[in-house]
Amino acid sequence: MTTLDFSDRVVVITGAGRGIGRAHAELLAALGAAVVVGDLGATVDGSGTEGDDPAGEVVEAITAAGGRAVACSADVATEDGANALVDAALSEFGQLDAVINNAGIVRTARFDEVPYEEYQRHLDVHYFGALRVCRAAWPHLLKSPAGRVVNTISQAMLGNPDMSHYGGSKGALFGLTRNLAVEGLAAGVMVNAIAPGAGTRMAEASADSLSPEVMEYMRIQLRPEHVAPVAAYLVHPDCTVTGEVFNVAGGIVNRLALVNTVGIHDPSLTVDTVAERFDEIMAISPDAMPQVVAPAEVPASS
């Protein structure tokens, strides 16, 4: 098997000072990519900063191993921070080919106890942060021979105890991913997402919403290094899917797909008909396979 070559790729990675983001940065750099390591050094709930310079530490490790990287301590929740990440790529490496939006915050609380300000903070980082970085990077991704975006969502968007603010913001990012995939298709910019699982400090911070058994399994079995290969492949020119989401954890990779069931068709529809035929509306069966909803047909090559 031939190792994919990333030597002509420049990738911006947000939240790359620790955990999954650091694993992305170190793998891509080891495979030849030039990497902008973005990390503000924020606390896990986004309320402040901690650590001296996590982005700088990652860059030191990468350069010591012979890789190319530059640190950028920028806040993705601001337009200036997003622009700074892109400017760092252009000034240091002269181009930008891909973005991995990994920066995130998390805090658990019951829906009826979460202040509205907390919803906004999660949106500012997860949704608007990714949007700002993509917006700043977009002209350069369009110029790249193979522009790529990978957003980091979460299965919490499908429902999780005490995480309506976190899961809701990740659901918004899923919607952005799908729409950018449509917009970028004609120009060859592929936009996908991963829903990772790993025993990181963010997982520890959300432990209240997980059983002790699940949390212990994550600490031991689910490593950030298991996630990075999927993100790396998605930013390589050889990968030509778009608008897709992949669950990634502990060496397991699968596709998360939206589906339409066959359902029913009744022009004289009444509430009684809906009630009587509700099982048909819901059914996914081998005799009535659902249609996978995709953004558009993807070209064979970029």
Structural write-up:
40% of the residues lie in helices and 15% in strands. The protein has ten helices and ten strands. The protein has an eight-stranded mixed β-sheet, sandwiched between helices. A two-stranded antiparallel ribbon has the order 9-10. Helix 5 links the parallel strand 5 (148-152) and strand 6 (190-197). Helix 1 (19-30) crosses helix 8, helix 3 (79-93) packs parallel to helix 4 and helix 4 packs parallel to helix 5. The model is unreliable at 297-302 (pLDDT under 50).
Unreliable stretches, pLDDT < 50, 5 or more residues? 297-302
N-to-C SSE series? Answer: EHEHEHEHEHEHHHEEEHHE
Structural class: alpha/beta
Q: What is the mean pLDDT?
A: 88
| Percent helix range | 40-55%
Count the beta strands.
10
* N-to-C CA distance: 22 Å
The strand line-up of the biggest sheet is 3-2-1-4-5-6-7-8
Radius of gyration: 20 Å
| Outline | globular
The proportion of strand residues reads 15-25%
Describe the sheet with the most strands: 8 strands, mixed
Alpha plus pi helix count: 10
